[in-house]
Write a structure and sequence with these properties.
Layout (H helix, E strand, L loop, with lengths): L1 E13 L12 E13 L10 H16 L2 E2 L9 H13 L7 E11 L2 E5 L6
Parallel strand pairs: 1-3
Antiparallel strand pairs: 1-2, 2-4, 4-5
EC number: 4.-.-.-
InterPro entries: 6-PTP_synth/QueD, 6-PTP_synth/QueD_sf
Protein name: 6-carboxy-5,6,7,8-tetrahydropterin synthase
Length: 122
């Protein structure tokens, strides 16, 4: 089993409407996103082409979130909710006979991030 990861960045603004503190005010982040695919090598001795991953993430996620007000997409755009939304947007698109989306990791700051994957019996 191989785990293939591609990294992206995007800039966006949000505010947390159900939070009481600094983050309830409008503010922005340069987010770092890692998308990980799990699978076995295919006929070209690759699990998935990095270029294909880039195209899918660009079309499904970055085109919506980059330079956006994320509250227009999610009513409570916590890091957890954004990561789950990204995973769900990609899960049906990054899937093949020998690979599937494994995990999304999303950094709001250089020291604070969340990982999301479908529950696997923990």
């Amino acid at each position: 089993m191989f785990f293939i990861t591609k990294e992206f960045t995007f800039d966006a603004a949000h505010n947390l409407t159900m939070y009481h503190g600094k983050c309830e005010k409008l503010h922005g982040h340069t987010y770092k996103l890692q998308v990980t695919v799990a699978g076995e090598k295919q006929e070209e001795d690759m699990v998935i082409d990095f270029l294909k991953m880039k195209e899918i993430v660009r079309d499904e996620v970055l085109s919506v979130l980059d330079h956006s007000y994320i509250n227009d997409v999610l009513s409570q755009p916590t890091a957890e909710n954004i990561a789950e939304w990204i995973f769900n947007k990609l899960a049906g698109k990054i899937r093949g006979n020998s690979f599937e989306l494994y995990e999304v990791a999303l950094w709001e700051t250089p020291t604070s991030f969340v990982r999301y994957r479908e529950r696997d019996g923990w």
